[in-house]
Known about the structure:
Layout: E1 3-10, H1 12-16, H2 20-28, E2 33-40, H3 44-50, H4 60-67, E3 80-88, H5 90-98, H6 111-115, E4 117-118, E5 124-125, E6 128-130, H7 134-144, E7 157-162, E8 165-170
Antiparallel strand pairs: 1-3, 1-6, 2-3, 4-5, 7-8
The protein binds 2'-deoxyadenosine-5'-diphosphate and magnesium ion (MG).
Amino acid sequence: MAVEQILILIKPDGIRKSLTGNVLTKLSQLEMAIIGAKVVKVSKELAEAHYYQLKDKPFFGELLDYIQGRIYGGETWDRVLAFVYQGVDAVARTRKIVGLTNPEEADPISIRGSYGRITTKGVYENVIHCSSDVSEAEREIKLWFKPQEIVRKIYATKKIEVNKEEKIVWE
Ligand code: DAT
Ligand code: MG
């Protein structure tokens, strides 16, 4: 029983289908604390860095277009909601209620089972991203959030000087 952090993203399909409230309600049953939250327009660079482990998969291009909301055309849905949650056994407990990656294989009462679908082009629109283990969570939280955007001290930071100004960054 350890206190852990996890990165959760409500993906563009979740926003487009107006599922933000439903998803946050389901997550609230885990009684975790929200310690960071923001809306992000996802750049290609951020999408590639987030999914770097999948860069050799045949669906990688579509996956980047999906997380950037580009599969819905133009700039209409080009954002995600990003959250850092903290709680006891956060990762395993969240993954359980989020459900399997493939929304059609996910438990029907999980978030992905309830709200996800596979598009006719084969994109897994699975509504939400969550980190799969503690080290992935740390990597992803440091990628998506700056230290000052999180209300708890969770990972080591350091001071650096940029243009004569002091900045606090992840160590
Ligand atoms: P998860 O999001 O459950 O951690 P993952 O990290 O293996 O799953 O994959 C990241 C995303 O890539 C996933 O949410 C949807 C997409 N994806 C994974 N496998 C896929 C497949 N076989 N076909 C289409 N999209 C896939
Ligand atoms: Mg994953």
